[in-house]
Amino acid sequence: MTYLLHLDATSFDAESISRSVARSFLDTWPGEVVHRDLAAAPVPHLTAAGISARLTDPARHNPDEAAAAALQDELIDEFLGASAYLFTVPLYNYAAPSSFKAWLDQIVVTGRTHARPDGPPAAGRRALVISSRGGSYGPGAPHHGRDHLVPHLREIMGGELGLELEFITPEFSLAPVVPALAQFLDFHRASLGDAHDQARKLGGSFTPGRKAA
Description:
This protein is of the alpha/beta class. It is about 35% helix and about 15% strand. The protein is built from six helices and five strands; from the N terminus they run βαβααβαβαβα. Helix 1 (about 15-30) runs parallel beside helix 6 and helix 2 (about 50-55) crosses helix 3 (about 65-80). The longest helix has 19 residues, at about 185-205. The chain starts with a strand and ends in a 10-residue tail after the last helix. About 35% of the residues are buried.
């Protein structure tokens, strides 16, 4: 087993629900962890130089293209060097935080991480996404169908990168702090407790190619 790549994309630190559930996973994870905190050290958004660097001979790169290519190489090598993945990606305005989208745009590169004749090099590796949300987006909820994070990550990370994705989604994280949601406090506590239980279980069994029972 090589390392687990752990990416945090939540803006909060110690008080983050997504991070706290991730810690439960890490408590039972038996191997090495490489951690990248996209809140503390954001990855730059993809620039014109970053795109053109992918399309031109490295020997002809200008300084901006060379710097952009070096960043992409670092992030892609880190991504491909992992055997499994842990992402904290809370739901912000019905989608993923822009910090996580910036990272994805840097590492989704045709011919390197996807769209290769032999398939994506990370295909079949397991990835857990922990995504807390302020309300509820499940069947029957008023906001059902407005979660654009899970479908997008299934398309990009599951479809294009070939990862075996699993999700833990603690709900009503705003219930303790928003009076209008106080009626859902018990639901929030139950959802959070279940999320921690799931994370601990997965952390002890999350080895490449092996799914939890």
